[in-house]
Amino acid sequence: GQCASVCPTGAIVIRNCTQKFWDAIYDDSKRVVVQFAPAVRVALGDEFGLEPGTNVAGKIVGALRKMGVDEVYDTTMGADLTVMEESKEFVKKYKAGTKLPLFTSCCPAWVKYAEHTHPELVEQISTCKSPMQIFSAVIKEHFKQVQAVDGKETVVFAIMPCTAKKDEQVRPEFIYEDGSRDTDGVITTQEFASILKQAGIVFEDIDPEAADMPFGITSGAGVIFGVTGGVAEAVIRRVVDDKSNNMLHNIAYTGVRGMDGIKEASIPYGEGRVKIAVVNGLANAEKLIEQIEIGEAEYDFVEVMACPGGCIAGAGQPFTRREGKEERAKGLYDADKLSQVKRSEENPVMMALYGGILKNKIHELLHVDYSKREENVK
Ligand code: SF4
Predict the structure, then answer these.
(1) Domain range enclosing 315
(2) For the chain, give me the number of helices (H) and strands (E)?
(3) From the CA of 315, how far away is ligand 1's center (Å)?
(4) 34 alpha carbon – ligand 1 mean position (Å)
(5) Which of 41, 123, 164, 330 has its CA 20 to 30 A from that of 228?
(6) DSSP assignment, residue 177?
(7) CB count in 10 Å sphere of residue 326
(8) Is 370 a domain residue?
(9) Hey, which of 107, 130, 227 would you mutate to test ligand 1's pocket, going by the most ligand atoms within 8 Å of its Cβ?
(10) Is 17 annotated in the active site?
(11) Domains: count for the chain
(12) Which ligand 1 atom is at minimum distance from the Cα of 316?
């Protein structure tokens, strides 16, 4: 089960699954799989005295392998799947004239906020699971056949920038009849730094390694999910017809990037234009919703990230000020520049998945309908 540690002031209970993680590693009947989010790679280094924004993705993989983790994957692959599904959903709704904007669903703090404060908007939230949940579901499905052969139960841990992901992971939508879950435990970046220290790992000296196949290839569009505007930019890359490098460059300057509270972009699509807003921080969500409701603003697609700056500045990350956020953002944009694959649909893993285990399972593994659960709105 989920272990809990109580905060010394007694004010909050923080689920900490560090023990569960170690128990799984020492349990031979378990296959331990770890995925780590885009934003984690540019923040973890702070805990080990590295330059702010240093990308330590390869070191994370190397360290997890040293600790005895069986399979290590990059949540960016899950983000690519989210882009595929969210873009499909958006285009379908846009063409059908369904009520817009479509709001993004990858930030669980935003989903929860909407459920409590704006239940009327919940049906406009994308039905895509978050990258973490999508990826865990796909990993579990993938290892089902292997499990039938080697008898090992697959447990998935996710290293996340975020404390809200701990609540997301135990939402009733993601716990199934047999008691199984998509994600078995969420470890924040800060908790992971403690785990590394506990294990006596000299992180600075770890040699970088690549994530495991068959999910080891990721796109630049997926990696920028970790910074405000990244989800919108990734979706734009997917939906525009013009796939030239020039267009790729132009998209970056449409207005989706940067640390402003509410950003706007407009992109050509079909005969018309798609209007996009990027909300950076929950306080700004309230402002934007008000503008929409009084008819002062109209959008087709809205990205909302609860943390100012996006996941790079999540509550589970080492604390940073404005400058540090910019370094982390730069770290992710640099990772995008270095990616051979810029768009989610060009990731060869997508083709393999859609032609393979996702056949007939797209809805079951990749989607969730938050509007169906009234008991969440308490
Ligand atoms: Fe979590 Fe913040 Fe990212 Fe939302 S924006 S998913 S709350 S880290």
Answers:
(1) 4-363
(2) 14, 10
(3) 8
(4) 19
(5) 123
(6) T
(7) 18
(8) no
(9) 107
(10) no
(11) 1
(12) 8
Q: Could you tell me if 101 and 124 are in contact, meaning their C-beta atoms sit under 8 angstroms apart?
A: yes
Kindly state the tokens that stand for 126: 């994308």
d(CA 41, CA 156): 19
**Domain assignment present for 375:** no
Q: For the beta carbon of residue 272, count every other beta carbon within 10 angstroms.
A: 10
Token look-up 């701990």 returns: 166
Q: Is 126 a catalytic residue?
A: yes
Tokens 């809805």 sit on residue: 363
Q: Is residue 276 part of a domain?
A: yes
Domain containing 297 — which CATH number? 3.40.50.1780
Tens of pLDDT along the chain (378 residues)? 344 444 445 445 557 899 999 999 999 999 999 999 999 999 999 999 999 999 999 999 999 999 999 999 999 999 999 999 999 999 999 999 999 999 999 999 999 999 999 999 999 999 999 999 999 999 999 999 999 999 999 999 999 999 999 999 999 999 999 999 999 999 999 999 999 999 999 999 999 999 999 999 999 999 999 999 999 999 999 999 999 999 999 999 999 999 999 999 999 998 899 999 999 999 999 999 999 999 999 999 999 999 999 999 999 999 998 889 999 999 999 999 999 999 999 999 999 999 999 999 999 999 998 877 655 444
Using a 6 Å CB cutoff, which residues line ligand 1?
Answer: 107, 109, 161-162, 164-165, 305-307, 310-311, 314
314 CA: nearest ligand 1 atom: 8
Q: How far is ligand 1, taken at its centre, from the CA of residue 302, in Å? A: 15
Find the 187 Cα to ligand 1 centroid distance in Å.
14
Assess contact for 55 and 42: CB atoms under 8 A. yes
Determine, yes or no, domain membership for 369: no
Q: Is 165 a catalytic residue?
A: yes
- Answer for the pair 211, 345: CB distance below 8 angstroms, yes or no: no
ipTM, 2 dp: 0.99
